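Progress narrative, Year 2. Work on Protein tipE from Cotesia typhae advanced from sequence curation to structure prediction during this period.
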Amino acid sequence: MGAQEDDKSSIIDDPNSTTNGVGAGGATDLPAIQILTLLEKAKFYTSLFLGTMAILAVFGFLFLIPFVVEPAITTILADFSPHPVACCTSAATRCHQLRVNYSRMPYDEFITKPLGSVAWDVTDTKFYINTEGCGYPPRVNCSVFAKEFGRSNMGKIIPCFYSRTYPGTVVSRYSWNQNLRHLVLAIVIPILIFVISLAVLFYWHCTPMKSCGGPGRNLIDKYSRKEDILAEDEFEEDEEEY
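Result:
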């Protein structure tokens, strides 16, 4: 009896013993059920996060349509000249509204000609700060735009970009690459987030051959062999006869 009690006490006092749930090195060995519970919680919160991201991606895309996608498509359809041409401010009215004359001759070539030797192709047309015609500081500042091209620089030759589709539209800055990049990013990023989020959610919660959200068994597991299918059909026929 004394030897058995000594053995029990040695097991309890042994720091390397796993009887009390403590393994070698003092690390706690979690039961398998606790590990599964943690995994289920992680899966739940990850699914919640992905679902939220998918919803935000949809709203983000809808938000970007009027502010990025539509202006970018309009700019592409306007077909602005890829190279700057020569412009001259002809009038500056209130609210930073500027009007210019412009020649379709490239700006670099125009400035080499004597002033007045080249006639303007379009006169007294609206001059916009960018292809959208608007914006917000600091990227777009109408006051700076007015000072740069307004009354103080009346008659000065400046580079500008005109629309070959709408000749009456002239802008002070334009970049095909930047416009295309904004359009692609505004379309691809929300769609990519939405697709990836849904793909992961479907992979976790809607396995193949199984109805999504239902407890139905996998058909492959239910009918593992052809003989099982035939046997079940024969059983159903026998029941109908009786």
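The longest helix spans residues 32-78. Helices lie at 2-13, 32-78, 107-110, 142-149, 176-205, 219-222, 226-241.
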